[in-house]
Write a structure and sequence with these properties.
By secondary structure, the protein is mostly helical. It has a domain at 1-171. The chain has 23 helices and 3 strands. The chain has helices spanning 3-15, 20-35, 43-53, 60-75, 92-96, 98-108, 114-126, 136-152, 156-164, 177-193, 197-208, 217-233, 237-247, 255-271, 276-286, 289-293, 297-308, 314-321, 338-351, 360-367, 371-383, 410-413, 433-458, and strands at residues 357-359, 389-392, 397-400. This is COP9 signalosome complex subunit 4. Its main location: cytoplasm. It is found in: Cytoplasm; Nucleus.
Length: 467
């Protein structure tokens, strides 16, 4: 007769005991016998655990007491934090035996194969289905233990999936919003660790509905950091930079980790689409002394170039790209990586600081694109309100509409020969090209009329008598 069948027979014989106290004692004696000496295989412990978790006729008092001791022994000797939904509530007698079963469990899983047997037992109990509803609390602790063991092996996705199996809604057990939030945030962190940001976003959305229920600093900090990373993964780099920079000031984080957050803030601000929002973030980061003293010089140099709208050279782009994470090197629509698009758009704006107008062929040479692609890039920026410029398509020219310096001569100010017709600066709105063309024709006609009236008033053109 094999040991597994022997254990099953012993469990069956104990079930026939009518007195509950005697039955509890018999179950606990059998559990102690299986754990001492250290088990070399998991089969007996799996059989014992499944006897309770799959039973639909188990007396609740007996089941909770014995399964509580079983779970306590399995968790013994691990670094699993026994808080929140990972904490096991025991009756008065069970609580008095916690130290005893903790000691037995430590001894049982202390051998060379101890951790392997522990994991096999947990997976064997949880992995075969058919679990009864009366033991939700004990099963929840086992799922936390399973996730913890997988994390030690750096199986982040497996650890997250173990926590996903925990029933937080519609169970007989009352779970507080704060405990639900803690589980959701653990899942989010694990999914982000393995790059599954799509699933992470789902659980983060659930957590965001509960974040107001907690005052725990660690949970709030974890929420902010997860939000920053999700923005980063989803290429919302402006928002990511703001969140990373906020987190970099948190004194609860180690200095080294704060510098990592600051580095991430600078990196994502550089990857953000060119425009007013990014300029504000760049200016904020540039005022942070830590950027220039604690980070690599190449990062602060790139930051200043982006802020001051200097043209960025290919060799500088290559050096910066070496420090990017894999998802930040993703290809984007229109060709190139996220960084290449960000630098191209930045260089288009930087050209406006140097030139009044530029041909698309020359702009393409600066951006390392053909003329058509350069025009597409500029047109997209204008449509999105991120570039003050207009396009002369017949001449294939891009005209920039704003300057950083205000010259005093008439030509630079956009006046017509000192006649007082001043060029008006208007915000560029994302309207259709036809409407914009009509507006320009209308504005030009008004200027021509104004110039003609001024000439007549000043008598600059002598009147020729008609003969």
């Amino acid at each position: 007769m094999d040991v597994d069948n022997e254990t099953s027979e012993k469990l069956a014989s104990i079930t026939s005991i009518s007195n509950q106290r005697e039955r509890i004692t018999a179950y606990l004696s059998l559990l102690s016998a299986i754990l001492s000496p250290s088990p070399t295989t998991s089969s007996d412990l799996i059989t014992f655990g499944r006897h309770f978790t799959t039973s639909t006729s188990m007396a609740t008092v007996v089941g909770r007491r014995v399964l509580g001791a079983y779970v306590t022994a399995l968790c013994a000797g691990t670094t699993l934090p026994r808080t929140g939904t990972a904490a096991l509530s025991l009756d008065e007698e069970g609580s008095s035996d916690v130290e005893k079963w903790d000691a037995i469990g430590k001894e049982a899983f202390n051998g060379t194969k101890g951790e392997e047997v522990r994991r096999d037992v947990v997976e064997g109990v949880l992995g075969q289905g058919g679990i009864s509803g009366w033991c939700d609390e004990q099963i929840t602790v086992l799922r936390h233990l399973h996730s913890h063991l997988l994390q030690l092996e750096e199986d982040w996705l497996g650890a997250a999936k173990a926590l996903m199996q925990i029933p937080l809604e519609g169970t007989s057990r009352l779970i507080s919003d704060e405990e639900k939030l803690a589980v959701y945030m653990k899942i989010v962190r694990l999914l982000l660790e393995c790059g599954e940001w799509g699933q992470a976003q789902t659980y983060f959305s659930r957590a965001s509905l509960l974040i107001h229920t907690t005052t725990d600093k660690e949970t709030n900090l974890s929420f902010k950091l997860s939000q920053a990373r999700l923005f980063d993964f989803s290429a919302r780099f402006n928002e990511a930079a703001q969140r990373y920079h906020e987190v970099s000031f948190e004194s609860a984080i180690d200095e080294e980790d704060r510098m990592q957050m600051l580095k991430a803030a600078v990196t994502t601000s550089i990857l953000a689409p060119a425009g007013p929002q990014r300029s504000r973030i760049l200016a904020t980061l540039n005022r942070d002394d830590r950027v220039h003293t604690a980070l690599h010089p190449s990062l602060s140099t790139m930051l200043r170039k982006m802020l001051l709208e200097y043209i960025v050279r290919p060799e500088e782009v290559k050096e910066f790209e070496e420090g990017l994470e894999e998802h930040q090197k993703a290809k984007v629509e229109g060709g190139g990586t996220v960084l290449e698009r960000a630098v191209r758009e930045h260089n288009v704006g930087a050209c406006g600081k140097v030139y009044d107008n530029v041909s698309f062929e020359a702009l393409g040479a600066i951006l390392e694109l053909d003329a058509e692609a350069a025009e597409t890039t500029a047109r997209r920026m204008i449509e999105q309100g991120r570039l003050r410029a207009w396009i002369d398509q017949p001449l294939h020219l891009l005209y920039f509409e704003s300057r950083t310096t205000h010259d005093t001569d008439a030509d630079a100010q956009g006046t017509a020969g000192g006649l007082g017709v001043v060029k008006e600066e208007k915000e560029i709105e994302p309207v259709s090209w036809t409407e914009r063309w009509d507006d320009r024709i209308r504005a030009t006609s008004i200027k021509v009329e104004t110039i003609a009236e001024t000439i007549q008033q000043r008598g600059l053109i002598p009147t020729v008598p008609v003969s």
